[in-house]
Amino acid sequence: MFYRPEDGHGLPHNPFNAIVSPRPIGWISTRGAKGDNLAPYSFFNAVAYVPPQVMFASTSAKEDREGTKDSVAQARESGVFCVNIVEYAARDTMNASSGAHPAGTDEFLLSGAAKAECDTIDCPRVADAPASLECRVTQIVALAGEANFAVFGEVTGVHMRDDCLRDGRFDVMTFGPMARLGYRDYSRVESLFSLSRPGE
């Protein structure tokens, strides 16, 4: 099968998200004039090592946020955000925070996610996440299409849960990271293997 996105795929559901998978989930926390916010984004990844940088993208809008969502609006307002890593045990809590709630809704309270303060920025974080990345916004890029924005940030602080450190390494097998697939599907990391690059 071949299709041009501009012509449509002709399938019952859009296959694009299933093709580009698995995708890590950035559970983004922000703080703004309307309060604290927490929401998951699967258009998320690390983009540079030195200095460490990450990005997340938002692809729809709410009527009360002038063409975007709460996370982008509050990152733009405050200049900071925090990325919280989602473990399998938090899947229901993460999902409960994913609704399109009115601006000013605190999804920490709504979902039951434990809240703590960041150290290098004025922002909340998920207290018991396996890891959290405190970030200062470096740029917000308007992408082609309606309400598509990519938010880039430099990591200024890193939290790692003590039980996730094994032999000096951050061990993802201790918590089973969640990954987003297509449609309503998710996965978790349950096995791993190592490869050496040529010449190593």
TrEMBL record:
Top-level taxon of origin: Bacteria
Domain Flavin reductase like, residue spans: 20-172
Gene3D superfamilies in the cross-refs: Electron Transport, Fmn-binding Protein, Chain A
Gene Ontology molecular-function annotations: FMN binding; oxidoreductase activity, acting on the CH-NH group of donors, NAD or NADP as acceptor
InterPro entries: Flavin_Rdtase-like_dom, Split_barrel_FMN-bd
Pfam families to which the protein is assigned, alphabetical: Flavin_Reduct
Protein name: Flavin reductase like domain protein
